[in-house]
Each structure stands twice: as structure tokens, then as C-alpha cells.
Amino acid sequence: MADAIVSREGGYVNDPDDPGGATNHGVTLGTMRDLGLDLDGDGAVTARDVRALPRNRAVDIYMNRYFHRPRIADLPEMLWETVFDMQVNAGRNAIRILQRLLNRMGQEVAIDGVIGPRTIAAAGRAAQLAPDHLVDAYGIARRNYYFALADRRPASRKYARTRAGGKGGWIRRAEEFISPLYHMTEQEFRNRVAAWD
């Protein structure tokens, strides 16, 4: 799973519109500073260290920091890949999206971005109640999160819509975890983002 995320994230990027700043394999400068990863040994963690981050180290960071530490492994296995991918992409918002979804499914949990006993139990019940739909529902909720983010922050729209007007990386990424039946058609997508023009 982590290797697939590294592939999705790509190599070194330092986009001024990305609040995460410099990233490599999706690992941000902030994460590297938190971990004290001064790879060039100059006493400071900078964009130069981000650029030097090897792929296998990024995979380890993802597994430790974004899968095991937030307790994604305690959720039903069907959710692991999509919640893990979103945790890397959006931090604790990945869990908040799940918790909002669980509440809409009648499973009362706090929306705090933390996987605790109640969220684990609620996700287990939801997986039993809707085994064929839970992953799609989460993926659709992810897609809606990206749209809402782009609605609020015009600088982020380039991640949701290409220059040619088609589905951008955020939307394509969410739909990787949604059954094709629930993918937006190009026209549905264009109608959804029409207000951005």
C-alpha cells in the first residue's frame, strides 16, 4: 500500500500553491523536520534534504507515521488502502471524513480525527451493514472533501481540475478507490466545477 502511495505522489515538487511546501514522494518538509531528517548533515532540515529523500525511506515514513501510528490497521481491512492514502494526502481529515460518514450511517462517533475504540467499533459495524458500499461511500466522501476544499480555496483548484477543464489529480485519485459505477462523467464533473470560472 505504501509503495503504491509513493508512486501516486511522484517525485520532488516545490509548488508555491501547496501549503505543504517542498515534497518528495509526497513527504513534506514539515514531516521531515518533525522527524529530524537532516539527510545532508548540515544541521538544518531544508528543501535540499527533501530532494535527497530516497523512495524506500518514504515508504517507511508512510507505514510508521500514516498507517500504524493513527491506527488505520485497527479499521476493517476493506478501508485500509483508501483511508491510508487519504491520511497521507490530508492528515487527520482522512479520519474526520470517515467519522462524518459513520455518523451519516447511524454510527455515532466524535468527529475528532482520532481512531479510538468507538471509531473502530463503528467502522466494524458499518462494514457489516454495508460491506459492498462502505469503500465507495468513503471514496465519494473523499471526492466531496476535495471539491469543498477547492470551492473555498481558489489556489487549490488546479489540483481538482486540469488546465484543459478535466478531472484533476485530486479527483482522479479519489476515484481510484471508487467503483467505476460511481465515477463522475466528464459532463457531471464540468457541471460541478462550472462555478469556478
Automatic annotation (TrEMBL):
<dbReference type="InterPro" id="IPR008565">
    <property type="entry name" value="TtsA-like_GH18_dom"/>
</dbReference>
<feature type="domain" description="Peptidoglycan binding">
    <location>
        <begin position="93"/>
        <end position="175"/>
    </location>
</feature>
<feature type="region of interest" description="Disordered">
    <location>
        <begin position="1"/>
        <end position="25"/>
    </location>
</feature>
<dbReference type="Pfam" id="PF05838">
    <property type="entry name" value="Glyco_hydro_108"/>
</dbReference>
<protein>
    <submittedName>
        <fullName>Uncharacterized protein</fullName>
    </submittedName>
</protein>
<dbReference type="Pfam" id="PF09374">
    <property type="entry name" value="PG_binding_3"/>
</dbReference>
<dbReference type="InterPro" id="IPR023346">
    <property type="entry name" value="Lysozyme-like_dom_sf"/>
</dbReference>
<feature type="domain" description="TtsA-like Glycoside hydrolase family 108">
    <location>
        <begin position="3"/>
        <end position="91"/>
    </location>
</feature>
<dbReference type="InterPro" id="IPR018537">
    <property type="entry name" value="Peptidoglycan-bd_3"/>
</dbReference>
<dbReference type="InterPro" id="IPR018247">
    <property type="entry name" value="EF_Hand_1_Ca_BS"/>
</dbReference>
